[in-house]
């Protein structure tokens, strides 16, 4: 794999070739990745997989016409042909008045911030096998576990570089490690499954394989012999592992493309209350060794911590340069792109701030409700906000989480759900998007 300096040079070189060949402007992405995955099942090695990839994506502009191409053939002749093909394609493309590079005056200047994303580790397959076996063994050791879907461990390292024809060039590297286990409990047609997993940028920050395995086993056994639930309106409490889906509905509704196309249920909500008082939702791209930290966005703009929702009020849209131009606003530093196509928008380390109530206090007045630990299918209508998903979890009776339940649907409207949402105080930064335990009153439940 190239160094970050070599990756940056590779992207910058093809941009220079493009402008020399007649492009008015260009940007390029170089992305390389090496990954190693080991999986085990029932105490035996099941699979070892190693992958290596390197790709280069080029976007060129001829006036307001543009084209994007990508390749994994990085030879000199192939890159020269790629430039010629991209420029020819752009000259045949329709004009787009909003297209173009990010504003030059907004580009990140100077060295990108150092976010401690790369621990430089090089893990041997034997070490990953040992971790996977330990996770599965711990899961299978939980009383009541009857079978296993396996354990796995992974390690990867990636490099991402971006260069533009108006003066930006930078690159960064990141490592990633993961451990997971998935097991079953119960017998015959009544078997249930669950899992646990953890990921980290630095290997020493991973939870122990034994802890992951125990978590998977205990989650699974708790779900054995699920009952049914009656239909009606009741409070729903979301486990943090599934509650983060609420953030995805918000981000989809405030992204630039949804606003410019007028396909968002929050279309007229900027500057208005969309959550209850005290609810804050933020994004922190500078979080050290964060799973989604990044030193600059997909167009070369600086990134910074942003509060999308402050004390329940919607503060901003998520805008790349094209959507910002269309709306007459400034890009927000949330552009994201791969090796192909135009930039879109994406968050980094997204989270809902912790509330003030312990989980026990959050549920103590619920006489009849549901604690949701799994959601299936469905989702939210991005235009209307209508929401319906299959779910599984546990009954809440007289303020206590009690017996497992399954095969029911929860429904409502996202706008109403946001306003009725109360966060607990148990926020942990464990995933790419994180929320505390969430309570939403008045949701409709349909049992089987």
UniProtKB/TrEMBL annotation:
<dbReference type="InterPro" id="IPR045570">
    <property type="entry name" value="Metalloprtase-TldD/E_cen_dom"/>
</dbReference>
<dbReference type="Pfam" id="PF19289">
    <property type="entry name" value="PmbA_TldD_3rd"/>
</dbReference>
<dbReference type="InterPro" id="IPR036059">
    <property type="entry name" value="TldD/PmbA_sf"/>
</dbReference>
<dbReference type="InterPro" id="IPR047657">
    <property type="entry name" value="PmbA"/>
</dbReference>
<feature type="domain" description="Metalloprotease TldD/E C-terminal">
    <location>
        <begin position="231"/>
        <end position="447"/>
    </location>
</feature>
<feature type="domain" description="Metalloprotease TldD/E N-terminal">
    <location>
        <begin position="26"/>
        <end position="90"/>
    </location>
</feature>
<comment type="similarity">
    <text>Belongs to the peptidase U62 family.</text>
</comment>
<dbReference type="InterPro" id="IPR045569">
    <property type="entry name" value="Metalloprtase-TldD/E_C"/>
</dbReference>
<dbReference type="InterPro" id="IPR035068">
    <property type="entry name" value="TldD/PmbA_N"/>
</dbReference>
<feature type="domain" description="Metalloprotease TldD/E central">
    <location>
        <begin position="120"/>
        <end position="223"/>
    </location>
</feature>
<dbReference type="InterPro" id="IPR002510">
    <property type="entry name" value="Metalloprtase-TldD/E_N"/>
</dbReference>
<dbReference type="Pfam" id="PF01523">
    <property type="entry name" value="PmbA_TldD_1st"/>
</dbReference>
<dbReference type="Pfam" id="PF19290">
    <property type="entry name" value="PmbA_TldD_2nd"/>
</dbReference>
<protein>
    <submittedName>
        <fullName>TldD/PmbA family protein</fullName>
    </submittedName>
</protein>
